[in-house]
Design a protein that fits this description.
OB fold (Dihydrolipoamide Acetyltransferase, E2P), Beta Polymerase, domain 2
Amino acid sequence: MSDILESSESQKRQYIDAESVFAEIRRLRQEAAQFRGGMIWREISGHRYLIRTSVKGTHKSLGPESEATARIFQTFTQRKAALADRLASIEKTFEEQRRLNRALRVGRVPPVVVDVLNVLDKAGVSEHFTVVGTHALYAYESACGVRFVPQAMATRDIDLLFDTRRHLAFFSRMKESELSLLGLLRKADKSFERLEDQKETVRNATGFEVDVIRRVAKDGDPHPLRMSDDEDDIWAVQASTGERILNSPRFSQMVVSTTGEMALMNTMHPLDFVDVKLALAKYPNRDPLKRSKDALQAELVATLVRDYMPQYARLGPSGSVNEEPGEADLPR
């Protein structure tokens, strides 16, 4: 299909190399996060105690000096030092990969999108969000070493579906970080501001928007839902397709920005994307221009599954591969 273009062999090789380094540095950073803060010995009332310190300045006693606490101290300090050395080494390789990504034009995701994904990941809340809509196409094309035509990708906003089924864990994490979701997004772009007439949307100085959606409230979901206790924070708006997307198997893929930066994008199973887009294309109140783009995107991703990702195809009753989604699969 002429609407799907193959990346060059050099771009494919570079993506594979960069993905390997990205996976390792992300693993090391996650492990190193468990060693934030430190451990010290402190004398209290004539006895030495092992104290765990946090980056926020809090202290927690791990018990009096003993063989057990001595081992804890030794293991912690040795592992923390080893991780610091490995991170320092791989950071240099990671920067080389970023420069090569840019030089070979491996990525074409808008930088602000990658920045948003990375701040959510660094804060430990990325698992609570699913990228839906047009930007999910970047994950699918990255997995296949191809590029979609520009008319399929044109958009000035990214939709993040919040998983209300795990809202307690999310709010606990946000309280621990002492940040609002808007505050987190401002780490990606300090010009983000919430729209007062669309409190689910933030917009930056260039007009790019981030929309936060959630499923229609059920099973004790909080409603209405503000993303933190901060009065100026974002409110998640209900979406009729939210439940279908939440029930879809997760599809996670490294994506690359035009500057060479990398991030992990979590989105939905590609055929569920096809089903949702086909349903939107049939909605009578859908903007006609959006309906045509919905149909194009559904066709492109269905073709990707057939030609590049057969492992994601669904099996029919006889064991044959269903290349196209059926009416029964469409969300109601």
